[in-house]
C-alpha cells in the first residue's frame, strides 16, 4: 500500500504543469454562431411581400370569376339573339302575345305623347269614325274622354249637324279614342281597339311571310 512521500524522498521528481487553454471553446465538433434577429425594416418588407402576394392571388381569383360571368352573359345574349332570329311561324303563341302587348304598350305611350303636344288629333279620329256610319243613321251618340269633348265640339261644330249628334263624356275611355253608337250600330274607335288591330295586322303579315318562305 502506497503512503505519502516525505520531502526528503522526492528527489528528482519533476512537477508537471498543464498548458494554458486559449481560443474558442470547441465541443462535439460543432461551432455555435450567434442567432440573427430580423430588424423592423426586414419585418416590414416581409409583411409587404406577403400582402402583395395575397393581393395578386385575389386579383387572379377575381379575374377568373369575372371572365366566367362574362362568358355566362355572352351565352345568354347569344341565346336571345338566336331566338329573335327565328321566324314568327316558329314562335309559340305566348311569345307572339308578349310581342303584341309590348307593341301596343309602346304605341299607347306614343299616342299619349302626341295628344299632349297636339290635342286636336282626336278630331281626325272622330271625322274618320263619322264616315263609317250609314247615311240613314239617326241620333248618333259620340262618347269621348271628358278632356276631348270641348276640342271636338269646337272643331266640328256638331251642334249644327243634321244628325243631331249627342256628345257624352266617358272617363273610362283613353284620350284620343271614341265610340259611336246609334240605334242599330256601334263603332269602336278607342285607342286600345285601333292599336290591337294594327298589332294583329303586323303580326299576321309576318306570319304569312314566314309561311311563304
Structural description of this entry:
The chain is α+β, with helices and mostly antiparallel strands and 213 residues long. It has 2 domains: 44-85; 89-212, 2-Layer Sandwich (hypothetical protein PF0899 fold), CATH 3.30.2320.30. The chain is 54% helix and 8% strand. It is built from 5 helices and 4 strands. It has helices spanning 40-84, 93-117, 121-131, 146-156, 191-212; strands at residues 141-144, 166-169, 178-181, 186-189. Strands 2-1-3-4 form a 4-stranded mixed beta sheet. Strand 3 (178-181) and strand 4 form a beta hairpin. Helix 2 packs across helix 5 (191-212). The model has no long low-confidence stretch (mean pLDDT 71).
SSE map:
Elements: H1 40-84, H2 93-117, H3 121-131, E1 141-144, H4 146-156, E2 166-169, E3 178-181, E4 186-189, H5 191-212
Parallel strand pairs: 1-2
Antiparallel strand pairs: 1-3, 3-4
Helix pairs in contact: 2-5, 3-4
Number of DSSP-assigned strands: 4
SSE topology string: HHHEHEEEH
Gyration radius, to the nearest Å? Answer: 52 Å
Strand order of the largest sheet: 2-1-3-4
Rounded to the nearest angstrom, the distance between the terminal CA atoms is: 137 Å
In total, the number of domains comes to: 2
Proportion of residues in helical segments: 40-55%
Task: Find the CATH superfamily of the largest domain.
Answer: ATP synthase, E subunit, C-terminal
How is the main sheet built?
A: 4 strands, mixed
Give start-end ranges of low-pLDDT stretches: none
Shape: elongated
**Number of DSSP helices?**
5
Which class do the helix and strand fractions yield?
Answer: alpha+beta
CATH topology of the largest domain: hypothetical protein PF0899 fold
Q: Report the average pLDDT across residues.
A: 71
Q: Which percent range describes the beta-strand content?
A: 5-15%
Q: What is the CATH-assigned architecture of the largest domain?
A: 2-Layer Sandwich
- The CATH class of the largest domain, by name, is Alpha Beta
Amino acid at each position: 500500500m502506497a503512503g505519502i512521500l516525505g520531502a526528503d524522498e522526492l528527489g528528482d521528481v519533476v512537477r508537471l504543469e498543464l498548458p494554458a487553454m486559449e481560443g474558442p471553446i470547441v465541443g462535439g465538433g460543432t461551432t455555435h454562431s450567434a442567432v440573427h434577429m430580423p430588424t423592423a425594416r426586414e419585418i416590414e418588407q416581409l409583411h409587404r411581400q406577403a400582402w402583395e402576394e395575397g393581393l395578386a392571388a385575389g386579383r387572379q381569383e377575381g379575374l377568373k370569376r369575372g371572365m366566367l360571368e362574362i362568358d355566362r352573359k355572352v351565352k345568354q345574349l347569344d341565346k336571345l339573339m338566336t331566338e329573335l332570329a327565328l321566324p314568327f311561324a316558329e314562335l309559340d303563341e305566348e311569345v307572339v302575345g308578349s310581342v303584341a302587348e309590348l307593341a301596343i304598350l309602346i304605341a299607347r305611350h306614343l299616342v299619349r305623347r302626341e295628344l299632349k303636344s297636339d290635342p286636336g288629333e282626336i278630331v281626325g279620329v272622330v271625322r274618320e269614325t263619322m264616315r263609317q256610319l250609314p247615311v240613314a243613321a239617326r241620333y248618333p251618340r259620340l262618347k269621348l274622354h271628358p278632356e276631348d269633348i270641348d276640342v271636338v265640339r269646337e272643331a266640328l261644330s256638331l251642334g249644327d249637324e243634321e244628325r243631331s249628334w249627342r256628345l257624352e263624356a266617358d272617363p273610362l275611355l283613353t284620350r284620343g279614342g271614341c265610340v259611336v253608337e246609334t240605334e242599330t250600330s256601334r263603332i269602336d274607335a278607342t285607342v286600345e281597339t285601333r292599336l290591337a288591330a294594327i298589332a294583329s295586322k303586323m303580326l299576321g303579315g309576318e306570319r304569312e311571310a314566314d309561311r311563304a318562305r
